[in-house]
Design brief:
- The protein is α/β, with parallel strands linked by helices and 230 residues long.
- It contains 7 helices and 9 strands.
- The strands form 2 sheets. The chain has a 6-stranded mixed sheet, with helices on both faces. Strands 2-1-4 form a 3-stranded antiparallel sheet, with helices on one face.
- Helix 6 links the parallel strand 6 (154-158) and strand 7 (185-190).
- The protein is globular, with a radius of gyration of 17 Å.
- Bound molecules: adenosine-5'-triphosphate.
- Residues 16, 19, 21, 39, 41-47, 189 line the site of adenosine-5'-triphosphate (ATP).
- Keywords: ATP-binding, Nucleotide-binding, Transport.
- One of its GO terms (molecular function) is ATP binding.
Length: 230
């Protein structure tokens, strides 16, 4: 059975000012699957995530998305100072701002969503800890919970495994698989061949173009390859 499509990109060009970084990306992202965005430094992975997140407008091409919920762009733990005087729960609650506006008090429903999101990624027991007390892996999971608290059906992550040890990276890949099984579409940029191999689908970028059909750094890069069973 063919996977459903969450995102269809046709001829997406995007860049910064006069500089074009993406030169016509045509690709699909399957719904409720894990897609890895793979490519060397500077190949355009973060730029493509920005386009998918809606924070960078393409200069040409079209982007269609099933579902009407706003995508959640999950920050990278190395990009957010852990010295912020916030508890893990506060950080996850920030995910509700997208719904409420930061000036509104959280409702009981918001708090329930925050608690569920933390539960989902196994950080419920860390709720009262200060961010600065968390390991890199715990912090990254808190940020994923922040994305989940937005109740988005599309999570976009830029190198979530960066700077984490093997166990912590493994944990995150397991969480991705569980979320996908629950219907969440995941797109994550990665340098890690292991993480890319574990995804359901891969998009390989080279110098702002999609590479397809070449001898792959295993497994194949055909559209929508299915690996293993769910
Ligand atoms: N805000 C910006 N303004 C101008 N150029 C940018 C900006 N952000 C990225 N670029 C350029 O766009 C190109 C693609 O960068 P991008 O961050 O999308 O690649 P990447 O594949 O995510 O790389 P990395 O793996 O290093 O994160 C690079 O040449 C980069 O210098």
């Amino acid at each position: 059975m063919m996977d459903e499509t969450a995102i269809t990109m046709r001829g997406i060009r995007a860049g910064y000012g006069a500089r074009t970084v993406l030169h016509g990306i045509t690709a699909r992202v399957p719904r409720a699957r894990v897609t890895a965005l793979v490519g060397h430094n500077g190949s355009g992975k973060s730029t493509l995530l920005g386009v998918l997140a809606g924070s960078l407008a393409p200069s040409a091409g079209t982007l269609e998305r099933s579902g009407d919920r706003r995508p959640a762009l999950v920050l990278q733990h190395t990009d957010v100072p852990a010295a912020l005087p916030l508890t893990a729960r506060d950080a996850v609650a920030m995910g509700r701002w997208a719904h409420r506006g930061w000036w509104r008090r959280l409702t009981g429903h918001d708090r329930a969503v925050v608690a569920q999101s933390m539960e989902r990624v196994g950080v419920a027991d860390l709720a009262r800890r200060q961010l600065g007390e968390l390991s890199g892996g715990q912090y990254q999971r808190v940020l994923i919970a922040q994305g989940l608290a937005q109740r988005s059906d599309l999570l976009l992550l830029d190198e979530p495994g960066a700077g984490l040890d093997q166990d912590a990276r493994e944990r995150i890949l397991e969480i991705f698989a569980e979320l996908a099984a629950d219907g969440v579409t995941i797109v994550h940029a990665t340098h890690d061949a292991g993480a890319a191999g574990r995804a359901d689908h891969r998009l390989l970028l080279r110098e702002g173009r999609l590479v397809t059909g070449e001898p792959a750094p295993e497994p194949s890069l055909e559209p929508f390859p299915r690996q293993g069973q769910r």
